Amino acid sequence: MTQLEVVFWIFAATAIVSAFLCITRKSPVASALWLVVTLFSLAAIFVLLDAHFIAAIQVLVYAGAIMVLFLFVIMLLNLGRGGPSDMLGWAGRLVMLAIGLLMAVELWVLSRATPDEGLLMAGEPLQRLTEQHGAVGMISEPLYRTYLVPFELTGMLLLAAIVGALVLAKRRL
Amino acid sequence: MPASVGWVWLVILLPFLGFLANGTLSLFRPDAKRAVSTIGVGVLVLSFVFALVVSSGVFAHPPHEAPYILTYWTWIPAGSLHIDVAFQVDQLSVVMLLVVTGISMLIHIFSVGYMGDDASYARYFAYLNLFVFFMLILILGANFPAMFVGWEGVGLCSYLLIGFWFENKPFADAGKKAFIVNRIGDFGFLIAMFMIFHATGSLNFVDVFHEAPHLFEVGGTTITLITLAMFLGCTGKSAQIPLYTWLPDAMAGPTPVSALIHAATMVTAGVYLVARSNVLFAMAPVSSFVVAAVGVATAFFAATIATKQWDIKKVLAYSTVSQLGFMFLGVGVGAYAAGIFHLVTHAFFKALLFLGSGSIIYALHRAYHHTGSHEDAQDMRNMGGLRRLMPWTAGLMWLATLAIAGVPGFSGFFSKDEILAMTFARGGDWNAFYVLWIVGVVAALLTAFYMTRMMIYTFHGPNRTGGEEEKHLHEAPWVMTGPLVVLGIGSVIAGIINLPAVLPMSGWLHHWLEPVTHLSLDYLPELHLSPTTEWALLGFATLIAAVGMLAAWNFLKPERLLPAKEAPAETGLQKTLVNKWYVDELYDTIVVRPIGWLSDRVLWRIVDAGIIDGLLVNGSATATRAVGWIGSRLQNGRIGTYMFFFVIGSLILLRALLR
Amino acid sequence: MLLGPSLMVSVILFSLGVAGVLFRRNAIVIFMCIELMLNAVNLTFVALAQQLGPEGHAIVFFVMAVAAAEAAVGLAIMIAIYRHKESVNVKEINLLRG
């Protein structure tokens, strides 16, 4: 195994273990913190996959903003401890295990499909693009050319979300 | 084809138009009796006239190679099954046609007088016209299904007319009994039709009878089964053992109906069927023997019952069953022309006897009406000495009695003798036929006996109707007695159409029907009687008739009879005979009651109420409610449940994508 | 080269997310598991983008934006519900019963 792969597997293991811990902790705060660990591991994996920009915004936006929001709300509603009936009984756990396994198996079979030959780009294309345009510049081509309209619409979406969140959370309208 | 034959459609259509007109009148103007009489009788007269036209065409140019077939339209084109509305006019059809239209016409005229006071006069003529329509379809149909339409139709009209006075429950029950018993026979006819179609691929008479020699092996199982099934139908329609029990009960209908349907026309349909299918029966000797044996057994059995019946119409009913038995004996031994001959002569004298009894019953009814009495107008113990009061009726009915008893010179003598002679001739071929001949002779003896008994009790001796009533008894009006005269003439001279071989001008009918019956001749043994044997048989027949009549004349004393209300109860063998050998009671126990029990206990309670109502109808409603209740549990408002099913659904979709 | 293993990790994370959604009854934790699923999807996109081009990165970009919007609005709803029922247990949020 190459160095790259070893590093990859370290971070992958971290992600999986912390995801598992996230879903099995009684306290919501603990779950949130374990999710943050997962997100960081994923960011590292993104770097290994030559997606530097994505890794950066994963840390900034996901781990930095969204998870902080989660923690704010948990603190606001004083849910720190976690209630007794939060998780399912042993029968439910068994069923969930089964469903989880089933889902995993199906998806893994799906994932073994290989993409068309024509779509593959030769060599190490991302690295080349990064050298040419820089990490951020690499994403500018698809974002502002091919997917310009969705980009603008996403702006609208964020505006709507802000307004909606403000209205929904007010005490008195 | 001669042009006059083309009129056959009008012969058939006229009675149907009469039915429509009279039916409409019976619904909207039931008291328009003059109109009904004109239409009802008029269409029959016209029909008879056109029947003469058609027949004259056939007499002038008899078809030899193939019968005249008139096809009007395609009825059922279903794959390889092709049934047309087609009529067949040949020598046999013409004989039947003249008998049916002629006798029907006379009976319609008689009915004008007999039913004149009835409130449902228009309905009566509507049904009677409809009956003639169906009977004509039966005898003129060119294929088995067309004949079957007529077969069923006359059964329907029989039911309608037997139960004509349906307010009286026993009468209505008699109509039901006739129809239901007939149905059993119809099942046989249908099976035979299916088998014929399966074997030959066609249902046309011409095709089937031509192909039969090539398709069936002589005496083989298929042809035997087909003909036996057909004969089952005949036992139903023509009242033979075991399905004869409806005919005596059918006397509940008006007497002209009994004359037309249950003497001259409908009940002869079975004989016609066998005669028409002669090649099939000739190829199945077992079936033919069964036909002959059942026929002669019925002839004997019914004759025994007739010797002890007190109701005049019941005597005539059992007499009809017995005479039909003779006809089947004739066609069973291969003498198809003889069977048809007896059919023709019987039509004359039996119709005469029934109509005559109708005149008598009419007279007694009138008399009882005047005195307000409620005695049975049909019981012979209430009659007696009527020859002084109703001389014409008496004389004509004596002519018919002489004919049926087989007195030489009269029509019945020649036809009955022909049948018995042919049976005797077959005896030379196989001894079993001698047994049939002996039974037939005994039945003929009994016939002479009971008919003379009937005449003695009715017309001779003292009158037992009652002092007051006797003053009101008189001859029926000419509208009723006129047709009797015509029938009387026929009963006397009809024998001329088929005289025995030893006499000059013999066997005209036999020769005339040869183009229809010749196909069967290949399979029948040569029926030969030496002239000596023939004369001996003729003499023996005369002896039998004489013995029967004289025995009745000498031993039965009408003076010793008491009126019905005072008559003592019967005992012993006489009681059994009066109660018809308890056959109806036997059928009731072994057939009717078990079916009734089965219908009530099993079919109604278990199948209908339990399974169909409870399980299927209510059960499916309950099941739907249950499924709906289960479905409603899904909408419990809990997000957890929704998510669960969401994931399950997506799992299934993924599985589907993994093809 | 890292495509196969990346996809496998993604699959496992997604399954864990699904199990978590069904497993927990605290609404906020359910939300977090949904975020976990979205992240797994992001990993898939990035892994494939390494072979197929930077369009995958653009998609990931949009996913993150939408996730952010969704988290904001969803949590606002959770706050509003908490104000009424004093609880975020999904077992108790069942007024839309059939």
Ends distance of chain A: 60 Å
Shape of chain A: globular
Number of strands of chain B: 2
- The CATH architecture designation of the largest domain in chain A is Up-down Bundle
Domains of chain A (count): 2
CATH superfamily of the largest domain in chain A: NADH-ubiquinone/plastoquinone oxidoreductase chain 6, subunit NuoJ
Can you tell me the residue ranges of chain A where pLDDT is under 50 for at least 5 consecutive residues? none
- The unreliable regions of chain B are none
Layout of helices and strands, plus pairs?
The complex is a heterotrimer of chains A (173), B (659) and C (98).
Chain A: H1 3-24, H2 28-48, H3 52-76, H4 90-111, H5 125-146, H6 148-169
Helix pairs in contact in A: 1-2, 2-3
Chain B: H1 8-28, H2 33-60, E1 68-78, E2 81-89, H3 91-114, H4 121-140, H5 144-162, H6 169-200, H7 205-215, H8 221-237, H9 246-249, H10 255-264, H11 269-276, H12 278-282, H13 285-306, H14 312-332, H15 336-371, H16 386-389, H17 391-405, H18 411-427, H19 432-459, H20 467-470, H21 478-493, H22 508-512, H23 514-517, H24 531-555, H25 572-578, H26 583-634, H27 639-657
Antiparallel strand pairs in B: 1-2
Helix pairs in contact in B: 1-2, 1-4, 2-3, 2-4, 3-4, 3-10, 3-15, 3-21, 4-5, 5-6, 6-8, 8-11, 8-13, 10-15, 11-15, 13-14, 13-19, 14-15, 14-18, 14-19, 15-17, 15-18, 15-21, 17-19, 17-21, 18-19, 18-24, 19-24
Chain C: H1 3-23, H2 27-52, H3 55-85
